[in-house]
Write a structure and sequence with these properties.
The chain has 20 helices and ten strands. The protein is α+β, with helices and mostly antiparallel strands. The protein folds into three domains: about 350 residues, no CATH class; about 130 residues; about 100 residues, Tick-borne Encephalitis virus Glycoprotein, domain 1 (Sandwich), CATH 2.60.98. Helix 2 runs antiparallel to helix 5 and helix 10 runs antiparallel to helix 13.
Length: about 650
């Protein structure tokens, strides 16, 4: 703040050094805690509560973020590292904004450092004598996905503090132009990508580990990650309108504030114990502090926004509701409406218990209803937005642009109906809209590639590569849109057309489901590093032809905990999973109770994650031409603001 008020570069150099020192200190702390975890230092409470001597090394390391204390320390480390990178990136630019960016990020860092040092210390000692062995790690967390899922979400949550800090700095310095947007676009993409990948990794972890046959149950902590991702998605779209037309300045500020506030709220849900979730920590003293911090963030940022409203006037007005600007605005409204519906579903049980003393239940149909109501128009806008003209689109241009996508969508709906796949109106609508979006994306790539080939010559693959390289932001976004199509198809098909059956099988008995025959060939047992696995061997056949073996089981850990071990047979070509769960073995008679699901097209959900990561990588990947364009754009914005 002193550097910002005095515009003193020497003080600002000291600020950069302080952030580097803070990051180094956080690294030392997290390395010390990891050392305690891998060396079984049971004098530390975190080590005692979350590890044991025979726990595999990889899970001893990942138990760092299985604990509340360790996860807060990881959050602080990522935050201080991100702040240090921001200071380094902007050492020669944004000299007016950077001191206030540092002040905001430093304030956030001080808060989390205070939590780790005084409220929920990762180095608290076990009272009394040091135990010979630890309590062990929760069975559901002994999964390779736990090495990536929580850190990816933390990266997404923490990276959102960078756009928030720049937005607050722009308000403090009364800079209403788009310079701060240029500086935070890639950081916003990093946060948005990390949250998206983190959610998909969490969905796959739930699918293969929890043992219920699904991948998304609208768990409050799952929803906590979805809400800031929706707000960040809206922000990434509306940014283009401000950069292109100088509009939606207030809206962009609101979206950044909402995205960061929802990240803090998600942290509160996970650590306060106010919601029941397989992802949340027990109730602790951290919850009230996080809620108070959220209140300070909202009060401070909204007050600052209100006082700066006169400086945020739009350069242009919306000329027509049939334009790309209007499409992006409708897209944002739907995204925020969906985020609010999810938020209300999460907080309503908490409010109900606080007011009436009875915790109300918000079931899955509530979320699915709003997902359909807001999701279907959003899916249509994915296809409409990139093709419609800026300012105003004429009826003739609309017909020329969208006639073939609409014809293909209608034909697709008719074909699905003839094939008997249209039992649900919402599902049929979603699938036909997926056809519409896919055709629009294909047309954009075909037109661009053809034009590029006509200009530069060469082969079609080379023209396509050059096209993407020359506008990675645009075509990377199209790849992400294609990932959304795959996700919708996978979710729709696996939800609407799945089959499930349960059976009690003695040795030699069989069950049938969707043409598959599963025969119990016996109950077996094998030892793991820290568990004993009881599993049944199911011989699978279809149409009389062998289809392999499924071996679902139950793990009993040396700590006395029990966990599911599902077995899944996936078809590479159809994306269909044969999913088996051992519910209860009978050690005396070798009989078993099993649950089997056939989940069609669920593989498309995981393929969507790969395509999403590819599209995000294309968009984020630095390009020298883009850097020069951004520098030129930044210079134009600077000259305009000075004028």
């Amino acid at each position: 703040m002193v550097a910002g008020l005095r515009r003193d570069r020497r003080v600002m150099r000291s600020v950069r050094n302080a952030f580097a020192a803070a990051f180094a200190a956080a690294l030392v702390a997290i390395a010390a805690l990891e050392y305690g975890l891998v060396t079984d230092d049971y004098s530390l409470q975190v080590v005692y509560q979350h590890t044991s001597r025979n726990l595999p090394l990889i899970y001893k390391m990942t138990s760092l973020w299985a604990s509340q204390e360790g996860s807060l320390l990881l959050w602080l480390t990522v935050l201080s590292g991100a702040a240090g990178v921001v200071m380094f990136q902007n050492r020669h630019r944004n000299r007016e904004l950077l001191p206030w960016v540092a002040a905001v990020m430093g304030g956030i860092g001080v808060f989390f450092a205070g939590l780790a040092a005084f409220v929920s210390s990762p180095f608290a000692h076990v009272p009394g004598a040091v135990q010979a062995n630890g309590a062990g790690l929760d069975p559901s967390l002994q999964n390779p996905y736990m090495a990536a899922h929580p850190p990816m979400l933390y990266l997404g949550y923490v990276s959102m503090s960078v756009p928030f800090a720049f937005a607050m700095a722009a308000l403090i310095t009364r800079r209403s132009d788009a310079r701060w947007l240029v500086s935070v676009r890639r950081w916003t993409l990093v946060s948005w990508t990390a949250l998206g990948i983190g959610m998909l990794l969490g969905a796959h972890w739930a699918y293969v580990e929890i043992g219920w046959g699904g991948y998304w149950a609208w768990d409050p902590v799952e929803s906590a990650a979805l809400m800031p991702w929706l707000a960040a998605t809206a922000f990434l779209h509306s940014v283009m309108v401000q950069e292109k037309k100088g509009m939606l300045k207030i809206w962009n500020m609101v979206l950044v504030i909402a995205a960061f506030a929802l990240c803090i709220f998600g942290d509160f849900l996970t650590r306060s114990g106010v919601v029941q979730s397989v992802h949340s920590f027990v109730q602790s003293a951290v919850g009230p502090w996080l809620l108070g911090f959220l209140a300070v963030v909202l009060a401070g940022s909204l007050s600052l926004l209100i006082t700066r409203l006169p400086t945020l006037k739009a350069d242009h007005k919306l000329e027509s509701v049939v334009s790309r600007e209007a499409t992006f605005l409708f897209n944002n409204l739907l995204l925020l409406a969906l985020a609010f519906a999810v938020l209300w579903g999460v907080v309503f049980p908490i409010l109900s218990e606080a007011v009436r003393g009875v915790r109300a239940t918000v079931a899955t149909p509530y979320y699915n209803f709003f997902l359909v109501i807001f999701g279907l128009p959003l899916l249509a806008l994915i296809g409409i937005g990139p093709l419609i003209a800026w300012r105003r689109a004429s009826p003739g241009s609309l017909w020329r642009t969208f006639r073939w996508p609409v014809v293909c969508a209608v034909a697709g709906a008719a074909l699905l109906g003839l094939l008997g796949l249209g039992s649900s109106v919402a599902g049929l609508t979603a699938l036909s809209l997926c056809v519409f979006v896919t055709v629009t994306i294909g047309m954009e790539f075909a037109r661009g590639t053809s034009a590029r080939r006509a200009i530069a010559g060469g082969s079609w693959p080379r023209a396509l590569r050059d096209l993407v390289n020359r506008n990675r932001r645009r075509y990377g976004g199209y790849v992400v849109h294609l990932a959304m199509v795959l996700l919708v198809v996978g979710v729709t098909a696996s939800t609407a057309y799945s089959s499930v059956d349960e059976a009690n099988l003695a040795v030699g008995q069989s069950m049938r489901i969707d043409g598959y025959t599963l025969k119990n060939t016996g109950l077996f047992q094998r030892k793991g590093p820290n568990y004993t696995l009881d599993y049944v061997r199911l011989q699978v056949s279809k149409g009389g032809k062998p289809q392999g073996i499924l071996e679902p089981g139950l793990r009993e850990y040396t700590t006395g905990q029990v966990g599911n071990e599902v077995d899944i047979r996936s078809s590479l070509f159809t994306g269909t999973d044969l999913y088996s769960i051992l519910q209860a073995p009978d050690q005396n008679g070798n009989g078993v109770s099993v649950k089997v699901l056939v989940n069609p097209a669920v593989g498309l959900v995981w393929l969507a994650g790969v395509v999403f990561a590819l599209g995000a990588l294309i968009t984020i990947w630095p390009d020298p031409r883009e850097a020069r364009q951004l520098a030129r754009r930044y210079g134009e914005l600077l000259a305009r603001s000075e004028a």
